Amino acid sequence: MTSDLTLHQRRREPTSAELAGIPWLKVLKLDEYERSANQIKVSDALPGDYVCRVGRPVTYWFGVVEGLLKMSSDNEQGQTMTFTGVPPGGWFGEGTALKRESYRYNIQALRKSIVAGLPVDTFHWLLDHSIGFNRFVMNQLNERLAQFIAAREIDRMHNPDLRVARSLAALFNPVLFPGVGDVLRITQQELAYLVGLSRQRVNEALTALEAQRTIQVEYGGLRILDLPALRSNAFARVA
DNA sequence: TCATTAAATTGTT
DNA sequence: AACAATTTAATGA
Q: Which CATH fold topology does A2-151 show?
């Protein structure tokens, strides 16, 4: 039984560096910024810790400051289905926060991570008062819609190289995950979990992508060299 | 600061 | 799944 983060998490005030990594704060006016910035709490999540669980009432709108989370859900048979990874700069759960429902997914730390949370009440206050914030959320929802459509395509692909490439492209999305930058901190094992392939196969795919000069494999991470190529994958070799 | 050791990650079978 | 090779992180003088 994995422990619930909310029961033992160490909440603390965000540092200025952590605040600087929160994308939507930049679109706020001064009074809006001050009002929300000091409502933000951060906590350290260890691998396996739950940030939120299905069915729990929404308390915060969450974002990743550092590390890597995964979004998943369990079906009736008890099998876990992983939907997507959430790298730094990613904020999620607007839909449920908006409707004040309960969480529809489990969010779990894949590695040691720093997670920030904005109380739902403040989230709603921002929606009611800040045009910049509304733009941000709208843009976010729109971009995520595109991401999920792309994810459906990925699911139907049988070529592992393509699956890895497209999944990686999603993680490098600068709109959804502005904290990632050129280098995504992710191990090949973690990527294997997200894509649903063996680590060996992921390693093989990454080597192929590197040979195409699309990415560069580094220890504990991947450097993006050609994002459009990752997305379209013109190289797609015939299986 | 440097050298040693342990741990994590990768490459390969 | 197992193993060796490589890289990083941690430790202590």
A: Jelly Rolls (2.60.120)
